[in-house]
Amino acid sequence: MGFNSIAACIHRWETFNFSNRTNFNLPLTQVDVLAGGTMSTARGARVHQLGLRLEF
To answer: What pTM did the predictor assign?
Structure first.
C-alpha cells in the first residue's frame, strides 16, 4: 500500500527598519536636570529574520 505526497519548502526573509533610520526613544521627562528634555538613547538598528518551513 502506497501513498503520494508532495513536499514544498517555503522560505521567508523579513527585514525591519530597512532604511536604517534612527528611531529615538522618548525624551527625558525630568526638567530640573541639565539633560532634561533630551533624547539620549535610540532603539535597535536593522533587524533581519529568516524562516524556513517544510510542508508535506
So the answer is: 0.43
